[in-house]
Here is the input.
Amino acid sequence: MTQSFSNLDQLCEKIEKGVKLPTPPVIALKILQAVQKNDDCLEELIDIISTDAALTAKILKIANSSFYALANKISSVERAVSILGTNLIKNISLSFVIANDFRETNQPNGFDYDYFWRRSVTSAVTANLLAQLLGIKDDDIFVTALLHDIGILIGYQHYRDTYLELLQRADSGKLTTAQLERMKFGHDHQQIACALIHKWNLPEHFTEPVAFHHEPLLAPAEFRLKTQIIYIADRIASIYTSSGNSDKIPEIRHQIADFFNLRPHIITSFLDEAALKSIEILDSFEIEDGGMKPYSQLLQEANEELGRLNISYEQLVLELKEAKEKSEHLTELLKNANTRLNTLVYTDGLTGLYNHRYFQQSLLASLTHAQQKQIPLSLIIFDLDHFKKINDTYGHPVGDLVLNNLAATIKEMIRPKDILARYGGEEFSIILPNTNFEMVQAFSDRLRECVENTVLKYDYELIRVTISVGATTYEPKDEKISPAELIKIADRGLYMAKENGRNRTTAILS
Here is the structure.
């Protein structure tokens, strides 16, 4: 059973008595130090990445891949950070730097570095896709899964021949690698990886899932779901990167259904996508995919082989089940296509926010709900100050960058239940359910201050913008009010904010 260490410093001390933990690569250390600062993180991170042409090229390649499926091509690190966010770009950068630094091309003494990183990258891609499928936003899960087995690499580099013998025993025997490690060395690769990540000053949402990734049900409750995702991702990566493991697919499908309550055809689509995306991302890491094949292709090849043999009744039932899943999958694809069509109808093409049509429908529905449930509803309308000057000075493409940067900044501030929409031009709106007048006043001030402190770096210039904010609140004790009337009050607050000098907020109780 994996030990849980309440004091990670003690774990590092224990591990380092037997294993020398490496320091981060130089550029990785610079990136980690940059993002730990509270000021100028954005500019410093861009500068660090931009000094390495190879790293910049890899980041742009993965940013423009189908993995992120962005509508417009990204041509600069600044644009990548603006669209994908500082934390995500940090993690992409760390992934490339660590995978490149901990890699030997001559692969001495039989340790296959290419296989190790092929499996690690496949685990990272699979974990990221599974988190997205479950509706979990976790920019750090890719790096966590990428590093989950790095203890094996450190163990090999320290123990060499002894460790290779241990790996061979794990492949052929009944005991796992972790069990053999604990018997031989007094610690396992999970603990080595956990100590290494802690030494590199990464937070505990990295260390805990790594420490329990072979026994996810033993992980602390707050990290259990993430640990289960990495555990499943590791098992799927094992199938896709090792020959002779495809017979384990039914067992893994059962575990996925048990852990995450997913339907069979969803699991099939996910398994296929994991392989296809991994092949694409492995190319970005300059790692051969080793002839990786999607689950459906493996199943088809297995069925063709069975066709040359005596197909049993059980095998025919399996084919029928797969055919049924395929039919259900096609139905799901049609449903998803309709969903994407609705998204296009209700989404602003530039910022990706909801558009004016969706805002109007949502405000009516939110007002009705507030009246029925007798809860307050607040509305904010704001726009950029002197936006025409930005377009005139830098051109409309930069103006678009400013709008996108503003949208990304505001999205980080609102709650999941709040509705942020582009009202028109440089004007935006936020519907805040169950928010009273005092709360919307405080939030409006935070909103204005956050935008004022946000900087967009373009070429060699820093572009700052401000907003004027109008806000209002409907209280259930008041008479019923129409959406148009509520908008008119918030709009009046916006007008007053501009009249009083801009870069300020005005809240009016309806």
